[in-house]
């Protein structure tokens, strides 16, 4: 097995902290992209810009073999950091609260190691540094601009840090691991009037209230309890003052699901329920559903084989965590080629690394980054065909 050097692992932490200090939002990752390009230049790895702030690099092994894709997302979140770490964000209101700083650093560490060992490497490794995972999404434009085509990627993997799993663990689950994340926008239209004379108006507020409650029937009464659906109304706005009847209410929400068939049925279910309530309350309703990221579905064969491979290499404790209802645009990569979303345990109670991603207090145990680098290398080597004269080849995905 190709091993990262101690110097490489130190550099990974250095890079992670540098990116953590200067977090950038989606499609604004200019400094992050420049840092990636400087690193790749120093390593002599060919690269190209893609999807505005994305970068694709290619490590070519000396021996023929398959092509592995490794993806790291680059963007931060509009959150004011309260983690208390010494290298906290220096950009007001922006924070790497989802660990994408670590994802970039680990992929650079894997790239450095693979490049140093390319004489022993079969196939090629495509490094996919992706912007805007938190929205509006960089994966799809990267694919449309040929990120998986030159050379053609045979299987693709990503890591995501996860504070549910302890540092020293990785999580590999076959099948769905993230949910489809579709957006809902609802406008309820009544007729305004004086708060003292409701019979002269059509109040949009009780109608909207009934809609919020009735929508929960989709998850509670209309979906197989062994399947997963979430309907969340996240905003509800309407009205002018205490004694005026509201003529309009606006609501937005998110629809989450794993099963593609259930996902397809959700917009119609929402419309049927809201149209029925609108008729009952004598209001009009406008319902817009915007499809977001599809569910991430791990290729079952690839997941099982890589889990066994990781155990054989003693990379980490290999767990099988439950899927989540979070969204992740790696889904688009995994729709095109066999894909694997690996969760990287970063939990460590003794340093307060317990808060979930998207929390202002989010921290991670940097000791886990070495596990992540080894995991990325193992995937690349395994897919490529194994080290020369190695018995450890992963085989075809
Ligand atoms: Zn996130
Ligand atoms: Zn994330």
What is the topology, as strand order, of the major beta sheet? 1-2-4-3-5-16-6-15
> N- to C-terminal separation?
19 Å
Q: Total helix count?
A: 9
Would you tell me the structural class of the helices and strands? alpha/beta
Q: What fold name goes in the CATH topology slot of the largest domain?
A: Aminopeptidase
Tell me the CATH superfamily of the largest domain: Zn peptidases
Mean pLDDT: 95
CATH class of the largest domain: Alpha Beta
| CA-based shape | elongated
As residue ranges, the low-confidence spans are: 387-393
Roughly how much helix do the residues carry, as a percent range?
A: 25-40%
Biggest beta sheet summary: 8 strands, mixed
What's the β-strand tally? Answer: 16
Ligand names: zinc ion
Portion in beta strands? 25-35%
User: Based on the structure given, which CATH architecture of the largest domain is correct?
Assistant: 3-Layer(aba) Sandwich
Compact summary:
The protein is of the alpha/beta class.
List the main descriptive attributes of the protein structure presented here.
33% helix; 397 residues; Aminopeptidase; four-stranded antiparallel sheet; single chain; binds zinc ion; 16 strands; alpha/beta; eight-stranded mixed sheet; 2 domains; Alpha-Beta Plaits
Q: What topology emerges from the helices and strands here?
A:
Layout: H1 6-21, H2 30-43, E1 46-50, E2 54-60, E3 63-73, H3 100-116, E4 122-130, H4 139-144, E5 155-166, E6 169-171, E7 175-176, E8 180-189, E9 193-194, H5 204-221, E10 229-238, E11 244-245, E12 248-257, H6 260-281, E13 284-293, E14 297-298, H7 300-312, E15 317-319, H8 330-336, E16 339-347, H9 368-384
The chain binds zinc ion (2 copies).
One zinc ion binds at residues 98, 134, 357-358.
């Amino acid at each position: 097995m190709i091993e990262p050097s101690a110097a490489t692992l130190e550099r990974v932490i250095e890079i992670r902290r540098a990116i953590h200090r200067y977090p950038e939002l989606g499609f604004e990752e200019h400094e992050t992209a420049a840092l990636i390009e400087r690193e790749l230049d120093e390593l002599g790895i060919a690269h190209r810009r893609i999807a505005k702030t994305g970068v694709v690099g290619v490590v070519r092994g000396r021996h023929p073999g398959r092509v592995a894709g490794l993806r790291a997302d680059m963007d931060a979140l509009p959150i004011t950091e309260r983690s208390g770490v010494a290298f906290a964000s220096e950009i007001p209101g922006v924070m790497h609260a989802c660990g994408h700083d670590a994802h970039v650093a680990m992929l650079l560490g894997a790239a450095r190691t693979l490049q140093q060992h390319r004489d022993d490497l079969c196939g090629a490794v495509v490094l996919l540094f992706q912007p805007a995972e938190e929205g509006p999404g960089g994966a799809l434009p990267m694919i449309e601009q040929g990120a998986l085509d030159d050379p053609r990627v045979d299987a693709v993997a990503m890591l995501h840090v996860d504070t549910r799993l302890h540092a020293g663990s990785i999580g590999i689950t076959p099948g769905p691991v993230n949910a489809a994340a579709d957006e809902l926008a609802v406008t309820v239209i009544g007729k305004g009037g004086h708060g003292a004379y409701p019979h002269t108006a059509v109040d949009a507020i009780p109608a909207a209230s009934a809609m919020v409650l009735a929508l929960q029937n989709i998850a509670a009464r209309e979906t197989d309890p062994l399947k997963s659906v979430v309907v969340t109304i996240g905003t509800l706005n309407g009205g002018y003052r205490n004694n005026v009847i509201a003529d309009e209410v606006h609501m937005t929400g998110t629809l989450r699901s794993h099963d593609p068939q259930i996902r397809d049925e959700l917009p119609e279910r929402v419309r049927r329920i809201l149209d029925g309530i609108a008729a009952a309350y004598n209001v009009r309703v406008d319902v817009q559903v915007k499809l977001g990221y599809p569910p991430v579905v791990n290729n079952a064969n690839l997941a099982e084989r890589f889990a066994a491979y990781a155990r054989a290499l003693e990379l980490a404790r290999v767990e099988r965590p439950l899927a989540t209802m979070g969204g992740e645009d790696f889904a688009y990569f995994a729709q095109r080629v066999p894909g694997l979303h690996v969760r990287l345990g970063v939990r460590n109670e003794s340093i307060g690394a317990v808060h979930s991603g998207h929390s202002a207090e989010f921290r991670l145990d940097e000791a886990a980054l070495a596990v992540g680098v080894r995991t990325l290398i193992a995937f690349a080597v395994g897919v490529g065909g194994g080290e020369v004269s190695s018995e450890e080849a992963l085989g075809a995905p």
